[in-house]
């Protein structure tokens, strides 16, 4: 998408207002100038992706404690307001509430997170309307190519930081090679943004490393059962399973494995196994399950917003919430590190063009690592570190994530060695 002038972008916004008034119940865009910076936050507060939002109240309290309701930019203090909208874990709803924030609330910047089903429709609406957007918690490829991004051009207003699918599969390979398996891998990839990206990108890399992939094909969710996929993996003798489904779907799959007597040695499942809340109901059958680790309490990074180390952030969350830390905590925190860094650097934080310019120039050390949208590997994107962990029986909590392979990021310490799932 070619760059447009601020005048052209404002014209698009006004044009969208006329279109959006009918679909939003006659609402008109909020164009009146104020001294309050409005920040939109779109997230799946309800629905199957709600696991991703549990840290938001704690993080917003941190923001309030740090800034006290004021942000300084260009020698001037501005009040700010964070307006939260629930996507209901639905891409269409995500687009609708984003349009509402743009046309009715007059936001200067929108932040979003939690899988391509949330991030992509929000980013698309922002790009269309010339509103800066920063996001994380969706792999880079489904974020960029799922939005029909052109690597030669990139986007104008939308920026994203997280790990990439290519980085993920290359992190899994050395971990799998440390396990005693037959090298046969079953792929559980649904018919959604993540599933389509992984089913296309993973098999060539996995097989190029000497493994063999069995792929039963795409499927829609929710699924009443996974008997056909389990049967295919079992028949092929797959001792490794990799895939990407939400927690409720994994529970259905994992229960089906038990019913059919299928006992793979290693199971990695994106989306489903990052969270203690999703692991706890599995009981003894959680032991040994594999997760990618985007952030942990042992990550060697600190916050630009509060100065906390990763361990201090995790401990503060546990004390305030009474719940176990989980990986999204670091990324919820880092999202607001970037948001307020951008607003502080913008020449005029009330002007979307100024905010966009500051967002594009982000160069910040955060609690999840360094964020710089000029580093790629795709335009408008910044890659963050990734290692591999397994759930193991804990002391304070029933299960803890133990980092078992850090081949690609040795600065992130391991806490144990890879082990096959115990079925006793």
List keywords for this structure.
424 residues, alpha/beta, Rossmann fold, 2 domains, seven-stranded mixed beta sheet, four-stranded parallel beta sheet, 13 helices, 16 strands, disordered N terminus, BCAA_transport, ABC transporter substrate-binding protein, Peripla_BP_I
- Average pLDDT works out at 91
The radius of gyration over CA amounts to: 22 Å
Shape: globular
Number of structural domains: 2
Q: Figure out the total of helices.
A: 13
Low-pLDDT runs = 1-33
The CATH class assignment of the largest domain is Alpha Beta
Fraction of helical residues? 25-40%
Proportion of residues in extended strands? 15-25%
SS class: alpha/beta
From the 3D coordinates, which CATH architecture of the largest domain would you assign? Answer: 3-Layer(aba) Sandwich
CATH third-level topology of the largest domain: Rossmann fold
Major beta sheet, specifics?
7 strands, mixed
Kindly, what is the distance between the CA atoms of the first and last residues, rounded to a whole number of angstroms? Answer: 56 Å
**Extended strand count:** 16
Instruction: Give the helices and strands as they follow along the chain.
Output: HEHEEHEHEHEHEHEHEHEHEHHHEEEEE
What's the name of the CATH homologous superfamily of the largest domain? Answer: Response regulator
What order do the strands of the largest sheet run in, or round the barrel if closed? Answer: 2-3-1-4-5-6-14
Signal peptide: 1-32
Domain Leucine-binding protein: 36-374
Keywords: Amino-acid transport, Signal, Transport
Family: Belongs to the leucine-binding protein family.
């Amino acid at each position: 998408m070619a760059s447009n002038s601020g005048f052209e972008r404002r014209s698009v916004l006004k044009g969208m207002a006329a279109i959006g008034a009918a679909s939003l119940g006659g609402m008109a865009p909020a164009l009146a100038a104020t001294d309050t910076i409005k920040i939109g936050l779109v997230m799946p507060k309800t629905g199957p992706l709600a696991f991703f939002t549990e840290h938001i109240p704690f993080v917003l309290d941190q923001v309030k404690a740090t800034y006290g309701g004021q942000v300084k930019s260009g020698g001037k203090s501005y009040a700010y307001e964070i307006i939260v909208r629930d996507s209901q874990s639905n891409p269409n709803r995500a687009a609708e509430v984003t349009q509402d924030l743009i046309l009715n609330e007059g936001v200067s910047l929108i932040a979003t997170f939690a899988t391509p089903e949330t991030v992509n429709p929000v980013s698309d609406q922002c790009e269309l309307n010339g509103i800066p957007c920063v996001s994380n918690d969706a792999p880079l490829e489904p974020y960029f190519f799922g939005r029909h991004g052109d690597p030669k051009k990139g986007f104008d207003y939308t920026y994203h930081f997280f790990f990439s699918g290519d980085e993920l599969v290359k992190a899994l390979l050395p971990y799998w090679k440390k396990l005693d398996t037959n090298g046969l891998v079953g792929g559980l990839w649904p018919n959604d943004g993540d599933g389509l990206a992984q089913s296309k990108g993973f098999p060539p890399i996995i097989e190029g490393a000497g493994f063999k992939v069995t792929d039963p094909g795409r499927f829609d969710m929710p699924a009443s059962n996974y008997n056909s996929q389990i049967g295919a993996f079992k028949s092929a003798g797959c001792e490794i399973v990799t895939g990407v489904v939400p927690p409720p779907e994994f529970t259905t799959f994992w229960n089906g494995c038990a019913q059919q007597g299928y006992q793979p040695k290693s199971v990695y499942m994106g989306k489903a196994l990052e969270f203690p809340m999703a692991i706890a109901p599995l009981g003894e059958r959680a032991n040994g399950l594999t997760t990618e680790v985007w952030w942990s309490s042992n990550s060697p990074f600190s916050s630009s917003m509060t100065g906390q180390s990763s361990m201090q952030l995790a401990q503060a969350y546990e004390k305030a919430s009474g719940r176990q830390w989980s990986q999204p905590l670091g990324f919820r925190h880092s999202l607001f590190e970037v948001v307020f860094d951008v607003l502080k650097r913008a020449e005029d934080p009330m002007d979307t063009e100024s905010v966009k310019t500051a967002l594009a120039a982000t160069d910040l050390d955060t609690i999840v690592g360094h964020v710089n949208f000029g580093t790629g590997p795709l335009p408008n994107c910044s890659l963050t570190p990734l290692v591999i962990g397994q759930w193991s029986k804990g002391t304070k909590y029933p299960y803890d994530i133990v980092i078992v392979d850090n081949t690609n990021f040795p600065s992130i310490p391991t806490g144990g060695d890879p082990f096959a799932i115990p079925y006793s």
